[in-house]
Structures are given as structure tokens and as C-alpha cells.
Amino acid sequence: MCDIAITTTDRANAETERSEEDFESRLVQALNAGGLLLLTSLGHRTGLLETLAGQPPLTSQALAERSGLQERYVREWLGGMVAAEIVETDPQSATYWLPDERAELLTDRGTANLAVYAQFIPLLGSVEDDVLRCFREGGGVPYSRYPRFQEVMASDSGQTVLPALFDAILPLCPGLTDRLEAGIRVLDCACGRGRALLAMAERFPASRFVGYDLSAEAIAWANAQAEHAGLTNLTFEVRDLSDFDATAEPAAFDLITTFDGIHDQGQPRRLLAGIRKSLAADGVYLVQDIHASSHHHLDRQHPLGAMLYAVSVSHCMTVSLAQGGEGLGTMWGRERALRYLKEAGFGDIQVHQLEHDIQNDYFVCRP
């Protein structure tokens, strides 16, 4: 009996030791992955990745000259990308190259440029001191502390929403494309830089489009793009939607959309109530928002769970709290979303996921 007890204890100790070693290994891998994302963001923003793509092996000097950058910084960046096994090198010729299969995922040569998402790490890290203060004192970090967020989000939607908008997203609502072609009234709330509206206004000239967003920078960019494209059926307005339940014009729109726009609102319930108020009796509300559960333990298997919670703490939740808002956060989850939509007065709600988009749910809502 004593030998059995000793054997059992030894086995348990060995399993605990392996578990601790596995956890340590995970943390070391995470440190390396974090470094890689910072380097990838730099490579994306400087154009180094695009310059390397499809090129024969280059020296650090040649790469710096082609990119218009300082060679010493380029050489150090290359060292990190070689250590991360992203860029290859020949030590004899001191040259570097980006294999085609990796360039497909890190540049605009492929269907999705994952380097775009690497930008979130340094962007959110830049407000860590502000977020730390909020942990201790409460409140939130205002939108003004994120000067590049709208730009990065526009790049994100350019890969998730725009490529699928006409072939996969709008067809989730049967008959909607025909109505858009015939001419209806469309509103996009929290439209950001309005790339989805710009695309729809060009595709459906008989329809009228309006975009609202709190960001003056985003609206200025969107209006400039609409003017440049000569789109006379599209307008953008700077508008605070925290009182939209009171200020919305009744039955003014046949289609209302929000693309990743509800969970960081100061007053999401009021916005949803205003959307319901603005919707015509035969209208449809199309929502894209983060695919998640409203229960922490069910997010353990989420392929981007830790990343999206980091985005929430460092942006989506805190910008809402900065407005004295609810602070839903990125991972508010499907269960809560359905509850809020029903509370707003939507009786017919269908939830969809698209094959190309592991990050979002799509809700088709009718009165």
C-alpha cells in the first residue's frame, strides 16, 4: 500500500512539473510572438514587407535604398524577422528574402494581409499607462488618445466586410440587393471611415446613403472620399449617438447597418432603440459584431479570445466608460446581443456566421 501511495504521489508531482514546464514554454512563446507582432507592424507601416515581396535576395543596404529608410534600422529589423523565421537569409552573400508563401499572408498579394492586425499591438500598448490609471481610479480612456484607430479599423473592415459585402453579407437578407438596386434609404451608424457605405453608394446609385460617427477625423476622411468619387447619393455626419433613442427620426430608413459598431458605444441600448425607431415597418437592420459568448468560461476555446479581450480592455470597453457609458466591451457576446436586440423591439432575429470570417457574427433583425 505504501509503494502504491508513493508511486501515485510521484506521478502527480511529475504531471505538475510537466504542466509548469508547458506553461513556462507558452509564456516564452508568447514573448517571442509579441516581439514578432511589433516587428511585423513596423514592416507593414514602413513598407518593408511589400518591398521584399516577390523580390530576389537583397542586402540590407539595397532594401533600405528601395524603401527610403535608414540601413541600420532595416538591418536590425531583418535580424528580428530572421530570428522569427519569417525572412530568410544567406550569410555568405548577406542577403535577405521573403518567401512567396509568407508574402501571401503578410502583404496585399494574398486575400488577407495579416500584418494589418499586428498594428493593434503597438497601438493599444501606447495607452497602457492610461488604462493602468483607469484600473486604479475608474473611468476610461477617450477616443482622442487613439489617433490611428480609425485608420487601422478601416484596413480591418477592408479585409472582412468589403470583400464579402455584395456576395455574402447583403444576401443574408433575402431580396435586399433588389431593393437597393431599385432605390431605398440606408443608414450606417458608427460608420467610421465609411468604406462599406462608399462601396454601396457606388454600386447602388438609385439608393440614398447616410453615415453617422462620433469621430470628426473619420467623417472628414469619408466625405473627402465621397467627393473625390463624385457620389452625390451619400452624406456623412459627425453625430453623437448616445441619445439616438430620443433624436432618431421615426421610420426614416429602409436599411440600417452597424459594422463592429455597437459594443464600444457609450449607450448601446439607446442606440439600438433609436435604430429600431428609425427603421421603416418593412425595414431590416443588419449587424456585424464580434463572435463571442457572454460567459467567460465559454470563451476559452475562442481562437482569438485572449487577443480580443486585450483589445477590449485597452480600447472598446474603456472608450465607452470614458463617456460615462456602459462599457460593454468587445466580448459582450451573442447571448447579450440577442437580449439587447429583443429589448430594443426586434422580434425576428437571425444569426449567421460566414466561412471567411471567424471573428464576427452577423445578425439580421426585423421588427
TrEMBL record:
Protein name: Methyltransferase domain-containing protein
Swiss-Prot/TrEMBL GO biological process terms: methylation
Molecular functions (GO terms): methyltransferase activity
UniProt keyword terms in alphabetical order: Methyltransferase, Transferase
Domain of life: Bacteria
S-adenosylmethionine-dependent methyltransferase Rv2258c-like winged HTH domain residues: 36-107
Domain named Methyltransferase: residues: 181-298
Xref: Pfam families: Methyltransf_31 (PF13847), WHD_Rv2258c (PF21320)
